[in-house]
Design brief:
By secondary structure, this protein is of the alpha+beta class. The protein has one domain. It is built from three helices and three strands. The chain has a three-stranded antiparallel beta sheet. The chain is globular, with a radius of gyration of 12 Å.
């Protein structure tokens, strides 16, 4: 069974809080994934954003690794 994370389709990038909800993990864990390079992100000023396609790719990779 594969689960699909539903993010707003018009968003090109999501916030750390939106990634937390999508992945159901804590803020520190999201930042751990960002620091490790597993979840690419960028900043605009002080705002950290995660490209939506990177989040979806991360989820697909996790599913494939678990199979």
């Amino acid at each position: 069974m594969s689960a699909t994370v539903q993010l707003p389709s018009d968003h090109q990038a999501v916030t750390v809080a939106e990634a937390m909800v999508a992945l159901r993990i804590s803020r520190p864990k999201v930042y751990d994934l960002i620091r490790s390079g597993a979840l690419p992100s960028f900043t605009i000023g002080r705002a950290r954003r995660i490209p939506a396609d990177s989040l979806h790719r991360f989820i697909r990779n996790q599913i494939e690794e678990a199979a």
